[in-house]
Amino acid sequence: MEAGRILQIGIPWITGRSPPRLTNFPRYICASSIQRGSYKGPKPGRDWIADWVSKNDDAVRSMPIYVGGASLLAVLFNRAISGIAPVADASSSQSRADLLTLGLAVTNVLTGLVWLSIRPKSITPVEPQGVECQVIYSHLPESVVSEILWVWESLSAVTCCKSLVIVYDCQCIVQIGVAAKSLNIDEPFAVDAAKLMQGSLYQGVLKSGAQSYLANLSLYPGRSELPFLPSNTQVSK
Q1: Which of 100, 207, 228 is nearest to 162 (CA)?
Q2: pLDDT, tens digit, 9 for 90 and up, residues 119-140
Q3: Can you give the pTM of this predicted structure?
Q4: Residue-wise pLDDT tens digits, 175-212
Q5: Helix locations, the chain, DSSP H
Q6: d(CA 139, CA 173)
Q7: Closest residue by Cα to residue 195 from 214, 178, 170, 212
Q8: How far is it, in rounded angstroms, from Cα 154 to Cα 199?
Q9: Could you give the CA distance from residue 193 to residue 215 in angstroms, rounded to a whole number?
Q10: Listed residue (225, 230, 193, 195) closest to 212, CA to CA
């Protein structure tokens, strides 16, 4: 795989011409971007409300409960000191306002309970359950193999990628990283490229023309189409 190509072009040497005069421009120019007061452009803004909400997540989630409870107490207190009959009367404007306030207060309480029960799930890193493998198609050129190994080393160094499978032209050319165990002990599960290309995941990617991101592989129906990945794989891309 060629990363670039150098064109060699011959430049004819013409004699009889005087060499160009050198200008008096300086040969070295020193520039520094770290200068106090030199940048006069717009400064990036900071969302103080978003920062405060992220730091006080529990208090913000429970705030509708306190607001709804305080509204209920306020309605009951107002009903008690206003001298109106405790029985709701449809002809009374005060009763209709109290019923509307009670509905809003109950809605706030239920909203707070929902906010407390639904929280974003944090993904914890896990160790893949499988065996280390490095299967590369034998008919690949040495330059291609070196490029693929460089890509894998880069991915494993800067990301949390643990497995890499490349299928090209109905052939699995690379299976490297952690793979699922086959029936034979300490042997990786081989990739069936033909079966993979007939599955719904591969066909969906071909139709949409975009990559498929599986955020939870264990609960996704495509788990049966990717048996070569470790059993506790969290994300597939």
Answers
A1: 228
A2: 777 767 778 888 888 888 888 8
A3: 0.51
A4: 998 888 887 777 888 888 888 888 888 888 888 888 77
A5: 48-55, 57-81, 93-117, 142-158, 193-198, 200-208
A6: 9
A7: 170
A8: 29
A9: 23
A10: 225
